[in-house]
Automatic annotation (TrEMBL):
SUPFAM superfamilies assigned to the protein according to its UniProt record, in alphabetical order: PLP-dependent transferases
Organism: Agromyces indicus
Name of the protein this chain belongs to: Uncharacterized protein
InterPro entries hit by this protein: PyrdxlP-dep_Trfase
Length: 91
Protein backbone atom coordinates (compact mmCIF):
# COMPACT_ATOMS: atom_id res chain seq x y z
CA UNK A 1 0.00 0.00 0.00
CA UNK A 2 1.38 3.41 -0.97
CA UNK A 3 1.00 6.48 1.21
CA UNK A 4 1.05 9.98 -0.27
CA UNK A 5 1.00 13.03 1.96
CA UNK A 6 -1.22 15.67 0.42
CA UNK A 7 -1.42 18.01 3.39
CA UNK A 8 0.91 17.73 6.36
CA UNK A 9 -0.63 17.83 9.82
CA UNK A 10 -0.89 21.42 11.06
CA UNK A 11 -0.23 22.86 7.60
CA UNK A 12 -2.74 25.63 6.88
CA UNK A 13 -3.54 26.00 3.19
CA UNK A 14 -6.55 26.49 0.97
CA UNK A 15 -7.08 22.76 0.64
CA UNK A 16 -8.21 19.70 2.52
CA UNK A 17 -8.69 16.08 1.57
CA UNK A 18 -12.39 16.87 1.26
CA UNK A 19 -11.48 19.48 -1.37
CA UNK A 20 -9.39 16.88 -3.19
CA UNK A 21 -12.32 14.46 -2.98
CA UNK A 22 -14.62 17.05 -4.55
CA UNK A 23 -12.13 17.98 -7.26
CA UNK A 24 -11.52 14.41 -8.49
CA UNK A 25 -15.24 13.68 -8.25
CA UNK A 26 -15.74 16.31 -10.96
CA UNK A 27 -13.58 14.05 -13.14
CA UNK A 28 -15.78 11.04 -12.30
CA UNK A 29 -13.64 9.40 -9.60
CA UNK A 30 -14.95 8.37 -6.18
CA UNK A 31 -12.06 8.82 -3.76
CA UNK A 32 -13.70 9.42 -0.37
CA UNK A 33 -12.05 11.29 2.48
CA UNK A 34 -12.76 9.72 5.86
CA UNK A 35 -12.29 10.71 9.46
CA UNK A 36 -10.49 8.27 11.71
CA UNK A 37 -11.92 6.93 15.00
CA UNK A 38 -12.14 9.16 18.08
CA UNK A 39 -8.58 8.50 19.26
CA UNK A 40 -7.30 9.80 15.89
CA UNK A 41 -10.09 12.33 15.23
CA UNK A 42 -7.64 14.99 14.00
CA UNK A 43 -6.57 12.72 11.11
CA UNK A 44 -8.37 12.49 7.76
CA UNK A 45 -7.38 9.81 5.24
CA UNK A 46 -8.23 8.79 1.72
CA UNK A 47 -8.05 5.29 0.35
CA UNK A 48 -8.46 4.24 -3.24
CA UNK A 49 -10.03 0.88 -3.93
CA UNK A 50 -9.93 -0.46 -7.46
CA UNK A 51 -11.29 -3.52 -9.19
CA UNK A 52 -8.95 -6.16 -10.52
CA UNK A 53 -10.09 -5.23 -14.05
CA UNK A 54 -8.59 -1.73 -13.83
CA UNK A 55 -6.71 -1.07 -17.05
CA UNK A 56 -3.39 0.75 -17.25
CA UNK A 57 -5.09 3.50 -19.25
CA UNK A 58 -7.67 4.11 -16.52
CA UNK A 59 -5.02 3.93 -13.80
CA UNK A 60 -2.97 6.50 -15.71
CA UNK A 61 -6.02 8.77 -16.02
CA UNK A 62 -6.69 8.48 -12.28
CA UNK A 63 -3.10 9.34 -11.42
CA UNK A 64 -3.16 12.31 -13.81
CA UNK A 65 -6.33 13.64 -12.19
CA UNK A 66 -4.90 13.11 -8.69
CA UNK A 67 -1.75 15.03 -9.70
CA UNK A 68 -3.71 17.88 -11.30
CA UNK A 69 -6.20 18.40 -8.45
CA UNK A 70 -3.69 19.68 -5.83
CA UNK A 71 -2.21 22.08 -8.38
CA UNK A 72 -5.67 23.47 -9.06
CA UNK A 73 -6.41 23.78 -5.34
CA UNK A 74 -3.07 25.51 -4.69
CA UNK A 75 -3.95 28.20 -7.24
CA UNK A 76 -7.08 29.16 -5.32
CA UNK A 77 -6.87 32.57 -3.67
CA UNK A 78 -9.32 31.75 -0.88
CA UNK A 79 -10.23 28.64 1.07
CA UNK A 80 -12.94 26.42 -0.33
CA UNK A 81 -16.27 26.96 1.46
CA UNK A 82 -16.73 24.22 4.05
CA UNK A 83 -19.64 25.32 6.22
CA UNK A 84 -21.51 22.16 7.11
CA UNK A 85 -19.33 20.06 4.83
CA UNK A 86 -18.88 16.42 5.52
CA UNK A 87 -17.98 13.44 3.47
CA UNK A 88 -20.58 12.26 0.99
CA UNK A 89 -19.69 8.68 1.95
CA UNK A 90 -21.23 7.26 5.12
CA UNK A 91 -21.36 3.91 6.82
Amino acid sequence: MATVRFLQQGEARNRTLYDLQDRVRIQGWLVPASLMPDDLADLTVQRIGVRDRLTMDLASDLLDDLRDAPQYLERLTAPMPDAGRRSAFHR
